[in-house]
Design goal:
MamQ_LemA; transmembrane
């Protein structure tokens, strides 16, 4: 009878271990899937940028430095390869800043501001930026759930034995935290 009890306890512990391991794998894959969603939106934005730049070029010929910076940031983001999510988002944030500069150009060029192509591209990029923000939230939520599971008892024992490591949350850059100055 004692042998059956011991055997039953061992089976329960093994089943729990397998379940905990599978849950960690599921959470890890959710983190990867959430990052893939960010990557899809970044690619969508990268695909829109050349059209935006070409539209603006016709109106703002002497703003080449701004346009060149946007293209450089876009190309850098496109060619990052196996960069970490943090490195990728840092370049993405720089690109977002450069895009804001292009949108500010429209205030100086009334014809550009009224251009249908420009307005459509601006809307598409604005929607894409919102999707990137949402995807970042989803990524951080997935990372938080995964990291909590890694840190809590008793799952942390399985995580340590299987070599699971924590993921890093995406943080808002300092320049994005500044309150914009509004002057009338």
């Amino acid at each position: 009878m004692v042998i059956w009890i011991i055997l039953g306890v061992v089976v329960l512990v093994v089943l729990w271990g397998v379940s905990a391991y599978n849950n960690l794998i599921k959470l890890k894959n959710w983190v990867k899937e959430a990052w893939a969603q960010i990557d899809v939106q970044l690619q969508r934005r990268n695909d829109l940028i050349p059209n935006l730049v070409e539209t603006v070029k016709g109106y703002a010929k002497h703003e080449q430095e701004t346009l060149t910076r946007v293209i450089e940031m876009r190309n850098k983001l496109t060619n990052m390869g196996d960069a970490s999510p943090q490195e990728t988002m840092e370049v993405s944030n720089q690109l977002t800043g450069a895009l804001k500069t292009i949108f500010a150009l429209s205030e100086s060029y009334p014809d550009l501001k009224a251009n249908t192509n420009f307005l459509n591209l601006q809307e598409e990029l604005s929607n894409t930026e919102n999707k990137i923000a949402y995807a970042r939230q989803l990524y951080n939520s997935s990372v938080a759930k995964y990291n909590i599971k890694l840190q809590t008892i008793p799952t942390n024992f399985i995580a340590n034995m299987a070599g699971f490591t924590q993921e890093v949350l995406l943080e808002t850059p300092e320049e994005a935290r500044k309150v914009p100055e509004v002057k009338f």
